[in-house]
Amino acid sequence: MKAPSTSANLGAGFDIVAVAHDAYFANASVKVESGCGVVVKFKKFDPGPRNTVAAALSHLFHRLDLCKHVEVEIDNDIPIARGLGSSGAAAVAAITAFLREANISIDYKIVIEAAGFGEVAAAGSPHFDNVAGAAMGGAVVLVSTSPLEVVKFTPRLLFVIGVPDVPPMPEKTKIMRSVLPEVVKFGKYVNQLAKVAALVSGFALSNPAITALGMDDDVVEPARAPHVPGYMRVKKYAREAGALGVAISGAGPSIIALVDEKHSDGVRAAVSRAYIEEGIKAEVKIAQVTEGALFL
Ligand code: HSE
Protein backbone atom coordinates (compact mmCIF):
# COMPACT_ATOMS: atom_id res chain seq x y z
CA MET A 1 0.00 0.00 0.00
CA LYS A 2 1.17 3.52 -0.61
CA ALA A 3 0.46 6.93 0.88
CA PRO A 4 1.27 10.29 -0.69
CA SER A 5 3.33 13.23 0.47
CA THR A 6 1.34 16.06 2.03
CA SER A 7 1.69 19.75 2.73
CA ALA A 8 0.02 20.69 5.99
CA ASN A 9 -1.28 24.18 6.83
CA LEU A 10 -1.13 25.55 3.26
CA GLY A 11 -0.64 29.00 4.76
CA ALA A 12 -3.41 30.05 7.10
CA GLY A 13 -4.81 26.57 7.85
CA PHE A 14 -2.39 25.80 10.67
CA ASP A 15 -2.90 22.26 12.00
CA ILE A 16 -6.32 21.91 10.34
CA VAL A 17 -5.64 21.88 6.58
CA ALA A 18 -3.50 19.62 4.39
CA VAL A 19 -3.24 18.73 0.73
CA ALA A 20 -2.09 15.36 -0.56
CA HIS A 21 0.11 15.56 -3.66
CA ASP A 22 1.80 13.18 -6.02
CA ALA A 23 5.31 14.58 -5.46
CA TYR A 24 6.41 11.47 -3.53
CA PHE A 25 4.96 8.29 -2.01
CA ALA A 26 5.68 6.04 0.99
CA ASN A 27 5.15 2.32 0.39
CA ALA A 28 4.48 -0.31 3.03
CA SER A 29 4.17 -4.07 2.90
CA VAL A 30 3.03 -6.08 5.89
CA LYS A 31 3.15 -9.72 6.99
CA VAL A 32 0.65 -10.69 9.66
CA GLU A 33 1.38 -13.69 11.88
CA SER A 34 0.08 -15.08 15.12
CA GLY A 35 1.40 -13.60 18.33
CA CYS A 36 1.67 -9.98 19.46
CA GLY A 37 4.19 -7.38 18.39
CA VAL A 38 5.36 -4.98 15.72
CA VAL A 39 8.65 -5.22 13.82
CA VAL A 40 9.40 -2.40 11.37
CA LYS A 41 12.17 -2.45 8.77
CA PHE A 42 13.02 0.70 6.84
CA LYS A 43 14.58 0.21 3.39
CA LYS A 44 15.93 3.77 3.36
CA PHE A 45 16.34 6.07 6.36
CA ASP A 46 15.88 4.17 9.64
CA PRO A 47 14.52 6.42 12.39
CA GLY A 48 15.21 3.78 15.07
CA PRO A 49 12.83 1.96 17.39
CA ARG A 50 10.85 5.11 18.36
CA ASN A 51 9.24 5.57 14.96
CA THR A 52 5.78 6.69 13.83
CA VAL A 53 4.97 3.35 12.19
CA ALA A 54 5.51 1.25 15.31
CA ALA A 55 3.78 3.89 17.48
CA ALA A 56 0.76 4.13 15.14
CA LEU A 57 0.31 0.35 14.86
CA SER A 58 0.65 -0.08 18.63
CA HIS A 59 -1.98 2.63 19.13
CA LEU A 60 -4.26 0.90 16.61
CA PHE A 61 -3.90 -2.52 18.26
CA HIS A 62 -4.60 -1.00 21.66
CA ARG A 63 -7.64 0.90 20.32
CA LEU A 64 -9.07 -2.21 18.62
CA ASP A 65 -7.99 -4.53 21.44
CA LEU A 66 -6.11 -6.64 18.90
CA CYS A 67 -3.16 -8.94 19.35
CA LYS A 68 -1.25 -9.56 16.10
CA HIS A 69 2.36 -10.01 15.14
CA VAL A 70 3.16 -7.79 12.19
CA GLU A 71 6.34 -7.36 10.22
CA VAL A 72 6.31 -4.14 8.25
CA GLU A 73 8.69 -3.08 5.50
CA ILE A 74 8.72 0.62 4.65
CA ASP A 75 10.11 1.91 1.37
CA ASN A 76 9.67 5.65 1.71
CA ASP A 77 10.51 8.03 -1.14
CA ILE A 78 9.21 11.07 0.75
CA PRO A 79 12.23 12.99 2.04
CA ILE A 80 12.26 12.96 5.82
CA ALA A 81 12.06 16.03 8.04
CA ARG A 82 11.19 18.23 5.05
CA GLY A 83 7.65 19.25 5.97
CA LEU A 84 6.17 16.78 3.49
CA GLY A 85 4.50 14.42 5.94
CA SER A 86 7.03 11.62 5.44
CA SER A 87 6.66 9.98 8.84
CA GLY A 88 2.86 10.31 8.81
CA ALA A 89 2.59 8.83 5.32
CA ALA A 90 4.73 5.84 6.39
CA ALA A 91 2.37 5.24 9.32
CA VAL A 92 -0.74 5.58 7.16
CA ALA A 93 0.69 3.25 4.49
CA ALA A 94 1.56 0.67 7.17
CA ILE A 95 -1.89 0.82 8.79
CA THR A 96 -3.72 0.50 5.47
CA ALA A 97 -1.42 -2.37 4.42
CA PHE A 98 -2.10 -4.11 7.73
CA LEU A 99 -5.88 -3.67 7.45
CA ARG A 100 -5.85 -5.04 3.88
CA GLU A 101 -3.62 -8.00 4.84
CA ALA A 102 -5.64 -8.85 7.96
CA ASN A 103 -8.93 -8.25 6.10
CA ILE A 104 -10.17 -5.80 8.71
CA SER A 105 -12.31 -2.82 7.85
CA ILE A 106 -12.61 0.08 10.29
CA ASP A 107 -13.84 3.67 10.31
CA TYR A 108 -11.37 5.89 8.46
CA LYS A 109 -11.26 8.16 11.52
CA ILE A 110 -9.58 5.39 13.53
CA VAL A 111 -6.85 5.18 10.85
CA ILE A 112 -6.28 8.95 11.12
CA GLU A 113 -6.40 8.86 14.90
CA ALA A 114 -3.84 6.03 15.17
CA ALA A 115 -1.47 7.60 12.60
CA GLY A 116 -1.89 11.01 14.31
CA PHE A 117 -0.87 9.54 17.65
CA GLY A 118 2.05 7.89 15.85
CA GLU A 119 3.27 11.43 15.08
CA VAL A 120 4.19 11.82 18.75
CA ALA A 121 7.28 9.69 17.98
CA ALA A 122 8.42 12.26 15.39
CA ALA A 123 7.02 15.58 16.56
CA GLY A 124 6.55 15.26 20.32
CA SER A 125 2.79 15.84 20.13
CA PRO A 126 -0.05 14.31 18.12
CA HIS A 127 -1.29 16.20 15.07
CA PHE A 128 -3.67 14.96 12.46
CA ASP A 129 -3.34 17.27 9.44
CA ASN A 130 -0.64 15.38 7.51
CA VAL A 131 -2.02 11.94 8.32
CA ALA A 132 -5.57 12.97 7.41
CA GLY A 133 -4.23 14.11 4.03
CA ALA A 134 -2.17 10.97 3.49
CA ALA A 135 -5.13 8.73 4.39
CA MET A 136 -7.97 10.59 2.66
CA GLY A 137 -6.14 12.36 -0.16
CA GLY A 138 -7.41 15.53 -1.81
CA ALA A 139 -7.52 18.62 0.35
CA VAL A 140 -8.63 17.91 3.89
CA VAL A 141 -9.99 20.18 6.59
CA LEU A 142 -10.13 19.03 10.21
CA VAL A 143 -13.43 20.56 11.20
CA SER A 144 -13.13 19.08 14.70
CA THR A 145 -10.16 17.55 16.50
CA SER A 146 -12.05 16.14 19.47
CA PRO A 147 -13.99 14.22 18.36
CA LEU A 148 -12.08 13.94 15.09
CA GLU A 149 -14.07 15.08 12.06
CA VAL A 150 -12.48 15.53 8.65
CA VAL A 151 -13.98 16.98 5.49
CA LYS A 152 -12.33 16.05 2.20
CA PHE A 153 -12.44 18.16 -0.95
CA THR A 154 -11.11 17.16 -4.33
CA PRO A 155 -10.05 20.42 -5.97
CA ARG A 156 -7.95 20.46 -9.12
CA LEU A 157 -4.85 22.29 -7.91
CA LEU A 158 -1.32 22.33 -9.27
CA PHE A 159 1.75 23.00 -7.14
CA VAL A 160 5.45 23.59 -7.37
CA ILE A 161 7.17 21.97 -4.39
CA GLY A 162 10.70 23.04 -3.44
CA VAL A 163 12.61 20.63 -1.24
CA PRO A 164 15.91 22.03 0.03
CA ASP A 165 18.70 19.58 0.75
CA VAL A 166 19.73 21.04 4.09
CA PRO A 167 20.81 19.07 7.17
CA PRO A 168 17.70 17.92 9.06
CA MET A 169 17.04 20.09 12.12
CA PRO A 170 16.83 17.74 15.13
CA GLU A 171 13.35 17.86 16.68
CA LYS A 172 12.37 20.20 13.83
CA THR A 173 8.60 20.21 14.32
CA LYS A 174 8.93 20.71 18.07
CA ILE A 175 11.26 23.68 17.50
CA MET A 176 9.10 25.14 14.73
CA ARG A 177 6.10 24.95 17.04
CA SER A 178 8.02 26.60 19.88
CA VAL A 179 8.60 29.77 17.79
CA LEU A 180 4.87 30.37 17.30
CA PRO A 181 3.24 33.40 18.95
CA GLU A 182 1.29 32.71 22.14
CA VAL A 183 -1.04 35.65 21.64
CA VAL A 184 -2.66 36.95 18.44
CA LYS A 185 -4.26 40.39 18.30
CA PHE A 186 -7.96 40.43 17.57
CA GLY A 187 -7.61 42.23 14.21
CA LYS A 188 -5.09 39.66 13.05
CA TYR A 189 -7.38 36.87 14.24
CA VAL A 190 -10.25 38.21 12.13
CA ASN A 191 -7.93 38.53 9.14
CA GLN A 192 -6.75 34.96 9.64
CA LEU A 193 -10.36 33.72 9.84
CA ALA A 194 -10.97 35.24 6.40
CA LYS A 195 -7.91 33.45 5.02
CA VAL A 196 -8.93 30.07 6.42
CA ALA A 197 -12.38 30.67 4.94
CA ALA A 198 -10.66 31.42 1.61
CA LEU A 199 -8.79 28.09 1.74
CA VAL A 200 -11.97 26.12 2.40
CA SER A 201 -13.99 28.08 -0.17
CA GLY A 202 -11.21 27.66 -2.74
CA PHE A 203 -11.22 23.89 -2.16
CA ALA A 204 -15.00 23.71 -2.39
CA LEU A 205 -15.09 25.74 -5.60
CA SER A 206 -11.92 24.13 -6.99
CA ASN A 207 -10.77 27.71 -7.48
CA PRO A 208 -6.99 28.28 -7.31
CA ALA A 209 -7.27 32.10 -7.06
CA ILE A 210 -9.56 31.91 -3.99
CA THR A 211 -7.42 29.14 -2.44
CA ALA A 212 -4.33 31.32 -2.90
CA LEU A 213 -5.89 34.10 -0.78
CA GLY A 214 -5.68 31.66 2.13
CA MET A 215 -2.03 30.87 1.53
CA ASP A 216 -1.09 34.26 2.90
CA ASP A 217 -0.56 33.92 6.59
CA ASP A 218 0.22 36.72 9.03
CA VAL A 219 0.48 34.54 12.11
CA VAL A 220 2.63 31.45 11.57
CA GLU A 221 4.71 32.39 8.50
CA PRO A 222 6.39 35.49 10.01
CA ALA A 223 7.46 33.42 13.03
CA ARG A 224 8.77 30.51 11.00
CA ALA A 225 10.16 32.15 7.85
CA PRO A 226 13.53 33.12 9.43
CA HIS A 227 14.10 29.40 10.16
CA VAL A 228 13.32 28.24 6.60
CA PRO A 229 16.44 28.33 4.42
CA GLY A 230 16.05 30.64 1.42
CA TYR A 231 12.32 31.13 2.01
CA MET A 232 12.01 34.87 1.36
CA ARG A 233 13.93 34.67 -1.94
CA VAL A 234 12.08 31.55 -3.05
CA LYS A 235 8.74 33.20 -2.28
CA LYS A 236 9.68 36.43 -4.07
CA TYR A 237 10.94 34.67 -7.21
CA ALA A 238 7.95 32.30 -7.29
CA ARG A 239 5.48 35.21 -7.01
CA GLU A 240 7.34 37.19 -9.69
CA ALA A 241 7.14 34.15 -11.99
CA GLY A 242 3.36 33.99 -11.55
CA ALA A 243 2.72 31.74 -8.52
CA LEU A 244 -0.75 32.44 -7.14
CA GLY A 245 0.31 31.71 -3.57
CA VAL A 246 3.39 30.50 -1.71
CA ALA A 247 3.61 28.96 1.76
CA ILE A 248 5.91 26.95 3.99
CA SER A 249 5.02 23.26 3.57
CA GLY A 250 4.04 22.03 7.05
CA ALA A 251 6.74 23.04 9.50
CA GLY A 252 9.25 23.43 6.62
CA PRO A 253 11.85 23.60 5.26
CA SER A 254 10.09 22.70 1.97
CA ILE A 255 7.94 25.29 0.26
CA ILE A 256 4.73 24.90 -1.68
CA ALA A 257 3.61 27.28 -4.43
CA LEU A 258 0.16 27.15 -6.00
CA VAL A 259 0.34 27.67 -9.76
CA ASP A 260 -1.79 27.53 -12.85
CA GLU A 261 -0.70 25.33 -15.71
CA LYS A 262 0.56 28.25 -17.80
CA HIS A 263 3.03 29.37 -15.12
CA SER A 264 4.08 26.00 -13.66
CA ASP A 265 7.35 25.57 -15.59
CA GLY A 266 8.30 29.23 -15.07
CA VAL A 267 7.66 29.03 -11.32
CA ARG A 268 9.60 25.78 -11.11
CA ALA A 269 12.58 27.45 -12.83
CA ALA A 270 12.29 30.54 -10.61
CA VAL A 271 12.23 28.46 -7.42
CA SER A 272 15.27 26.47 -8.62
CA ARG A 273 17.11 29.73 -9.41
CA ALA A 274 16.30 31.14 -5.97
CA TYR A 275 17.76 28.09 -4.26
CA ILE A 276 20.87 28.23 -6.49
CA GLU A 277 21.38 31.91 -5.60
CA GLU A 278 21.01 30.98 -1.92
CA GLY A 279 23.68 28.28 -2.38
CA ILE A 280 21.19 25.56 -1.44
CA LYS A 281 20.88 22.28 -3.35
CA ALA A 282 17.19 21.55 -3.86
CA GLU A 283 14.77 19.29 -5.68
CA VAL A 284 11.92 21.25 -7.26
CA LYS A 285 8.90 19.33 -8.51
CA ILE A 286 5.56 20.03 -10.11
CA ALA A 287 2.81 18.06 -8.34
CA GLN A 288 -0.92 17.83 -8.30
CA VAL A 289 -3.55 16.89 -5.75
CA THR A 290 -3.78 13.13 -5.44
CA GLU A 291 -5.81 10.39 -3.73
CA GLY A 292 -5.00 9.09 -0.25
CA ALA A 293 -3.94 5.63 0.92
CA LEU A 294 -7.50 4.58 1.77
CA PHE A 295 -8.52 5.03 -1.86
CA LEU A 296 -5.38 4.06 -3.79
N1 HSE B 1 0.71 21.52 11.28
C1 HSE B 1 1.98 21.03 11.72
C2 HSE B 1 2.91 22.21 11.96
C3 HSE B 1 2.54 20.13 10.68
O1 HSE B 1 2.96 23.09 11.11
O2 HSE B 1 3.58 22.24 13.00
C4 HSE B 1 3.85 19.55 11.08
O3 HSE B 1 4.19 18.52 10.18
What does this molecule look like?
The protein is an alpha+beta fold and 296 residues long. The protein has two domains: 2-153, Ribosomal Protein S5, domain 2, CATH 3.30.230.10; 158-287, 2-Layer Sandwich (Alpha-Beta Plaits). The chain contains eleven helices and ten strands. The strands form two sheets. Strands 1, 2, 3, 4, 5 and 6 form a six-stranded mixed β-sheet that branches. It has a four-stranded antiparallel β-sheet with strand order 8-9-7-10. A hairpin with a 2-residue loop joins strand 5 and strand 6 (148-153). Helix 1 crosses helix 2 (86-102), helix 1 (52-64) packs across helix 3 and helix 2 packs across helix 5. The longest helix has 20 residues, at 186-205. The radius of gyration is 18 Å and the shape is globular. The mean pLDDT is 95.
Task: Please summarize what this structure is.
With 296 residues, the chain is an alpha+beta fold.
List keywords for this structure.
296 residues, alpha+beta, Ribosomal Protein S5, domain 2, Alpha-Beta Plaits, four-stranded antiparallel sheet, 11 helices, 25% strand, binds L-homoserine
* CATH topology tier name of the largest domain: Ribosomal Protein S5, domain 2
The level 1 CATH classification of the largest domain is Alpha Beta
Q: Can you tell me the residue ranges where pLDDT is under 50 for at least 5 consecutive residues? A: none
Category by helix and strand content: alpha+beta
Overall tally of domains:
2
State the shape: globular
Rounded to the nearest angstrom, the distance between the terminal CA atoms is 8 Å
Estimated helix fraction: 25-40%
Number of helices: 11
Second-tier CATH architecture of the largest domain: 2-Layer Sandwich
How many whole angstroms does the radius of gyration measure?
18 Å
Largest sheet: 6 strands, mixed
Number of strands: 10
Mean pLDDT: 95
**What's the helix-strand series?**
EEEHEHHHHEEEHHHHHEEHE
Strand content: 25-35%
Bound small molecules, deduplicated: L-homoserine
